[in-house]
Amino acid sequence: MALLLLLVLLTACDAILQDLSSKMFTFPQETNTAYVRLPTTRQDFSAVTVCLRSFTDLKRDHALFSLATSSAANDFLIYMKPENNEFHLNSKDNQAKLTGHDYKMNTWHSICATWDSVSGLGQLWLDGKPSSRKFLSSGSNINGPVIIVLGQDQDTYGGGFDIKQSFVGMMSDLHMWNYVLSPCEIQNYNDEHNFTPGNVLNWSTLNFQIAGRVLIEEKQKSCIF
Question: Where does the record locate the signal sequence feature (predicted)?
Answer without folding.
Answer: 1-15
